[in-house]
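REQUEST ID: PR-0412
SUBMITTED BY: lab tech R.K.
PRIORITY: routine
TASK: structure prediction, single protein chain
INPUT:
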Amino acid sequence: MNDKKIHEYQKLIRVKAHDGFMVVSFMVTKNHVHDPDILHTPIVLQIHGLLGHFLARGTPRLLPHALLKHGFNSLSINTRMAFAGQMTGRGIFDDTIHDIDAAVNLLGYMGFKNIFIMGYSLGASMAVNWAANRHHPKVRGLILEGIHYSLPKSQRRDFEKWGSNPTYDEIYDRAKKTLGSNPYESVDDETFVVYGSRGEGREPMSSEVFTYKSWWFMGGPEADRAMAYKHIGRVGLPILFIRGENDFLIEEWEPKELAKIVLDSGNPHVRIREIAGAKHDCMENPDMTLGEICDMLTVYSVKPGPDTIEESTMG
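STATUS: complete
OUTPUT:
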């Protein structure tokens, strides 16, 4: 990066998904007055983890401004799973594909030529679900930080490890009885607490709150779209996997197995990088994390050239 001062431009943007949900987003770019090629500069569409961007620490909060120092733009979106989504029943994992649709379409409409989708933790699974089922000609790659091989498998593993109350199977039985034969359309939903889901005891930091419906589509044994290993083989985009060396949520084998599925499917554009010294949040080692991400953005961006007409085939 040269020594020229970067003029930061920040903007809150609201965009409506096709089903009416309002996606709140935060754009950080180089000031277009000082950069005539801003639309060719890579922009990272960042998808949050459990909390959402405006409450989270680490990658969701730190990455946009760090990227800008390296000359790259970002748009961070809060999907319907942000904040209390899983506690109110609003946060249905399957429906987040519409939130990403809205954000990608917005960036395409604004004229950005090089869009990269980056998901952090839960958001990485959302990104895989989107990329396996959608195509947009301006989306150039996928960056997956701390991705679960399968959210339901991870949740069962954690519940069994810490001896949750209720158990994973007890929750499944209760959810089936509560939601009935059509969980998605069911109006019978309840909020519940899982004690000992993330650690020993009943302390708040060791427990989680869901509704049966949000749990069914994110962590239940029938949450098909949250099982990245089933879908990632359909992703034709270049993919960068990053995982903290000391990640306590994602086991070392998980990104490796997902990468193998991608390679076996015929997509050779796969990178796996372990971030030294980092835990679940790779921005605990910002230099290495940014180096890997910026390299991905540089390698797979399309450079400015004669304008061509490109049609979106997004569903």
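NOTES: The radius of gyration is 19 Å.
REVIEWED BY: pending
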